[in-house]
Each structure stands twice: as structure tokens, then as C-alpha cells.
């Protein structure tokens, strides 16, 4: 009997050892960045960051979960950006500008993904508060006009986020122009993976709309001639003067080159034809039918954010806890 008790105690000791080992493993950082001498992009400071670093986001994320989802993950994204932009003109470019500039450029897909992920994650954590806050009266008035009540917004927002099958973000955005009903200006928008909520990131970056513009494209045109026409570079048409009136002056070419659009011919009318009115980097350029929006807040549905604290099947509980910790004093 004594032998059995001693074995039991020994087994219990091993069990406690395994438990302690498991705890150490859970607290181990998922990302430990190596020292870098050059660092242009930095992890931004959060308004309540000092509070979160001590105890996590109260009622939402434990300290371990916070360190994983913000401190380590954001540093990982920033380090990737630094490596991708090292010694280029983009090394000092803000992440939002990188998102708008490279969203539709397949040659810079990685740069867009890391820039957008960093920007989105920052918005998510920057709209969290350690204590509940009140919705300002002007914003509450807009919520009532757009969703009938704050409770209705909560129901629709959480249902949208909970139904997302996979990682991404759900945003509350404010439309600044072109609404059919001027009193309804708030909307819920969902994006998957590193998708961006900004309309400028969804514009088809081609110089002309081939359905509406007199482009000068002919059946006997060579690929080289077509490429030169699209670039709109001065002095590239010595043997084909007919192409000069149709140079777009957009993209990699000369913005002052002769252009069918700039001359006011077919396809030049409307808000979407003049890039000077809708510059990509100002966030104003958008696809036809799109809306100019301002992002008010967003929640991440990426599993690394909530899985540690809530487990499989716990996303709904995470979302409900997140709603109670929104910093409405935006």
C-alpha cells in the first residue's frame, strides 16, 4: 500500500511537471525578432498600450493573447515590411499609402499583404479601451439613422463577424459621398485575409476604360506599339505618329503627355476619368460605383487573436466581449 502511494505521488509529481512545462510552452513568444540595425517602419504606439502591456485587454484578451496578437504579430509584420522596402523609395512610406499604391499590383503582392495586415491590425487594437466608453451623441445619431439603434448595429455587426468563415476583419465605415439617402451614412463592411476596406485599393488600375474611351487601338497594332501607347512617354513614337494623340500619360509615363482623356474626348466625362481629381495616394480614387469611406472601427476574426483565450467554437464569445471594450471616443 505504501509502495502504491509512493508511486502515485511520483506520478503526480510528473503530472505537475508536465503541467508546468505546458504553461511555459503556452507563454513562449510565437515570434522572437532578431536584432535589426535598420528599421524604418515601426510598431505604432497604442493609446492604451501601457495598460494592455500589464494585464492585456480587460475582459477581452489575456496578457498572453494580447502579446501574441499585437506585440509579436505587429512586430512580425513590421519586420517583413522593413525587409521588403529596404533601400527603396517605399521604406519611409506609411502603410496606408502602400496599401493604396500596390493593392492591384501583382508584382508587389507581398508588400501589399504585409502593409495591409499591419494597417488593419493597428486599427483593430487602436479602437480598444481598458474600460467601457460611451458613444458620443453625434455618432449615436448617425447610428440611429443608419441602423435604427445601437442594439441593432450590435446584432448586425456581431452576426456578420461570427459568420465569416476564415480570417479577416469586419469594419464600421462612414460613407462621405454619394449616398442615395444622406441620413444613412454608416455601413458594415467585411474583408478577408489582408483585404483593405479603402475604396482606392479596389480600383482597376488601367489607364483607360476600353469600353468608353477612344483609345486608338487598331487591329494591326503590334504589342510594342500598344505598350508604348499605354505608357504615354514622350518621344517613343518616332515612326508611328498616329499614336501620339492617344497617349494616356498615366502609370509609368509622362503625366503631361497628350491624352484622349485629358483632351476631353470620349470617356473623359465623369468623376472617374480624371486622376488628378481622384489621386490614389489621397484615398479618394475609387472604382465606379464605389463609395468614399472613412473607417471608424474594426474587429479582427483571425484565429490567432481569440483562439488562445476562447478555444475552438469561442469566436462568438470573443466578439461579444470585444463589443463591450470598444473605444467609442474615436
What does this structure look like?
The protein has 10 helices and 3 strands. The protein is mainly alpha-helical and 330 residues long. The model is unreliable at 1-25, 204-214 and 234-284 (pLDDT under 50). Helix 3 packs antiparallel against helix 5 (109-126), helix 4 (95-102) packs across helix 5 and helix 7 (150-163) runs antiparallel to helix 10 (315-323). Strands 2-1-3 form a 3-stranded antiparallel sheet. The longest helix is centred in the first third of the chain and has 26 residues, at 2-27. The radius of gyration is 26 Å and the shape is globular.
Question: Topology of this protein?
Answer:
Blueprint: H1 2-27, H2 49-55, H3 63-85, H4 95-102, H5 109-126, H6 137-147, H7 150-163, E1 168-175, E2 186-192, H8 223-231, E3 293-300, H9 303-310, H10 315-323
Antiparallel strand pairs: 1-2, 1-3
Order of helices and strands: HHHHHHHEEHEHH
Sheet-strand content, in percent, reads 5-15%
Q: Overall mean pLDDT score?
A: 75
Helix and strand composition category: mainly alpha
Name the helicity range.
Answer: 40-55%
Uncertain runs: 1-25, 204-214, 234-284
Largest sheet entry? 3 strands, antiparallel
Number of helices: 10
Q: Shape from CA axes?
A: globular
Rg, Cα atoms, Å: 26 Å
Order of strands in the sheet with most strands: 2-1-3
Distance between the termini: 67 Å
Strand count: 3
Amino acid at each position: 500500500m505504501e509502495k502504491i502511494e509512493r508511486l502515485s505521488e511520483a506520478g503526480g509529481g510528473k503530472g505537475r511537471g508536465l503541467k508546468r512545462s505546458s504553461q511555459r510552452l503556452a507563454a513562449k513568444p510565437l515570434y522572437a525578432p532578431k536584432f535589426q540595425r535598420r528599421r524604418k517602419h515601426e510598431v505604432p504606439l497604442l493609446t492604451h498600450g501601457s495598460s494592455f502591456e500589464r494585464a492585456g485587454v480587460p475582459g477581452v484578451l489575456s496578457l498572453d493573447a494580447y502579446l501574441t496578437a499585437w506585440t509579436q504579430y505587429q512586430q512580425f509584420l513590421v519586420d517583413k515590411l522593413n525587409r521588403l522596402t529596404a533601400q527603396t523609395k517605399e521604406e519611409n512610406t506609411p502603410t496606408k499609402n502602400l496599401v493604396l499604391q500596390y493593392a492591384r499590383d501583382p508584382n508587389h503582392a507581398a508588400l501589399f499583404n504585409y502593409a495591409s495586415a499591419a494597417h488593419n491590425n493597428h486599427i483593430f487594437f487602436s479602437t480598444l479601451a481598458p474600460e467601457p466608453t460611451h458613444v458620443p451623441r453625434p455618432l449615436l445619431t448617425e447610428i440611429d439613422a443608419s441602423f435604427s439603434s445601437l442594439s441593432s448595429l450590435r446584432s448586425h455587426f456581431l452576426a456578420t463577424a461570427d459568420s465569416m468563415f476564415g480570417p479577416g476583419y469586419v469594419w464600421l465605415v462612414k460613407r462621405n459621398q454619394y449616398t442615395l439617402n444622406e441620413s444613412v451614412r454608416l455601413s458594415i463592411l467585411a474583408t478577408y485575409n489582408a483585404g483593405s476596406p479603402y475604396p482606392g485599393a479596389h480600383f482597376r488600375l488601367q489607364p483607360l476604360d476600353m469600353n468608353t474611351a477612344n483609345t486608338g487601338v487598331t487591329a494591326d497594332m503590334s504589342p510594342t506599339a500598344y505598350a508604348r501607347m499605354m505608357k504615354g512617354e514622350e518621344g517613343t513614337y518616332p515612326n508611328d505618329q498616329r499614336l501620339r494623340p492617344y497617349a494616356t500619360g498615366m502609370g509609368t509615363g509622362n503625366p503631361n503627355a497628350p491624352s484622349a482623356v485629358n483632351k476631353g474626348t470620349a470617356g473623359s466625362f465623369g468623376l472617374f476619368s480624371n486622376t488628378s481629381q481622384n489621386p490614389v495616394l489621397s484615398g479618394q480614387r475609387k472604382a465606379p460605383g464605389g463609395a468614399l469611406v472613412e473607417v471608424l472601427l474594426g474587429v479582427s476574426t483571425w484565429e490567432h487573436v481569440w483562439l488562445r483565450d476562447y478555444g475552438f467554437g469561442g469566436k462568438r464569445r470573443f466578439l461579444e466581449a470585444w463589443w463591450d471594450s470598444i473605444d467609442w471616443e474615436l
